Amino acid sequence: MTPRYLTNSFAVTSQLSVEDIAEAGRQGFRGIICARPDAEETGQPTAAALELAAVEAGLTFEMIPVRTGTLPESTDIDRARVTLKGVDGPVLGYCRSGNRAGQLWALAMADSLAADQILAAGRQAGLDFSPLTTHQQHASATRAPAAGSSMRRFDVVVIGGGAGGLAAASGMLRRRPRTSVAVVEPSEEHFYQPGWTLVGGGIFRSAQTRRAEASVMPKDADWVKARVERVFPDDRQVLLSDGTTLFYEILIVAAGITLNWAGIDGLSETLGRNGVTSNYRYDLAPYTWELVQSMKGGNAIFTQPPMPIKCAGAPQKAMYLACDAWRRKGILNQINVEFDNAGGVLFGVPEFVPALMEYVRTYGIGLEFSSRLTAVNGTRKVATFERKTEAGIEQVERPFDMLHVVPPQIAPSFIRESGLSDDSGFVAVDPGTLRHKSYPTIFAIGDSAGTGNAKTAAAVRKQAPVVALNAIAALDGKPPVATYDGYGGCPLTVENGKIVLAEFGYGGKLLPTLPKWLLDGTHPSRLAWYLKKDVMPLLYWEMLKGREVMVQPTKISRG
């Protein structure tokens, strides 16, 4: 990587590699602009892989692809301008040669630098910007009306059309039907992700967990099919990937969590083949069950990355269901099962550990704590772990016939880049009211929220009415009226037909829904299995409609 500086705050370079991203950070760059479309040539790193590397390095990453032989569109220029002005430090732009990244900068700076300054900056970096003169004039002449035509105003903007976003939007509209609500969601499909464990265990079909996004979108909400680029909380604005700006009175961040597949070397290249799978992806969960069925002996390794992750029990669930299937076939004693957990305990709430440990012993599972998966070689079928020992950190290679991977997980980058995050990168909210600590018109729900609860769909069910009630109060200029106790539910599928139903809140406090005489969540139960398999999916789809069953929030008393 050889940056060519146009100014002290911007440089261009040719195609970056994943390793170059960290080097860019060491050289002082704080942001990356990708001006190159994916798949222009064989072996080109994807923008997604580079973005994840940038997030890990603490850098802003913006993809503004410009096809070779063309000039940027006005919306691309606007996005580049927002990025250049929003990043606190030098920005590095790249494409195949650096030329398109330089042109993007030149056009974005046309409203703040004179033409001769832009031309001189280009010459300094070996770039000729003189052909851009006509394009700059046209862009300047058309920018104002284009901006005016792409602005929309709403009472409430919800970022994310997953469980949290739809439940909160529906809850608000049910209580106040005339509220104008926009749900920003680029995907055409909606997934019941808690069901993927059962797909990987051969209990559900994958199609049972997927519906069209249009079928679950609240009918009175405006569905905005775009990706969020940045939030400007001081101006109450949301900039979208298509150049549209949304103005809001109340903002609800429900953007989920990002699965960092590129955070493990070699993983992306071998997922879905060579015995490497994950129940954390819709298209891979069936492959998990395929591998379980085909195993006759050898090494089966299951991994768990550092926290936070969505559904912290899911890495174990895949393992227990696989072991149960092998036990039923009478081949469990021919398979070496290993659980590599980057953390230091089997489960974070001690009351549920004894029941889980009984299954660990029954299935003959080898436990490795403080063991983080760092690389996968699918061809050799070798997994590399970084393990903490009394002697220090050591690298351990483990051969496998089946490898179930849970990727490291991080907050969506726009949260940090927009100044909404806490030190963890997630939205800095009050853990009770779920309102932002600095911006009283912003709330967060689900995996995006910087709270200490388990990141599960069950937590969203409890959070949704709290956010809906408090957001309505904020619309009326009133303080929050409801509080969330940190409830999260984790149905730990220890075998086909039995579940340890872990329900707990902040500080690990046990918060069972049913009385202990009916269901003791600290022990495996067939009733809990019935709830997981048959009842919870129904509750999930009803939750998206704003129907709040057994989730009445605690009201805040103002004495």
Automatic annotation (TrEMBL):
Gene3D superfamilies: FAD/NAD(P)-binding domain, Protein tyrosine phosphatase superfamily. InterPro entries: BLH_phosphatase-like, FAD/NAD-bd_sf, FAD/NAD-binding_dom, Prot-tyrosine_phosphatase-like, Sulphide_quinone_reductase. Residues 4-110 form the Beta-lactamase hydrolase-like protein phosphatase-like domain. Pfam families: BLH_phosphatase, Pyr_redox_2. Residues 154-274 form the FAD/NAD(P)-binding domain. PANTHER family: SULFIDE:QUINONE OXIDOREDUCTASE, SULFIDE:QUINONE OXIDOREDUCTASE, MITOCHONDRIAL. NCBIfam families: TIGR01244 family sulfur transferase. This is TIGR01244 family phosphatase.
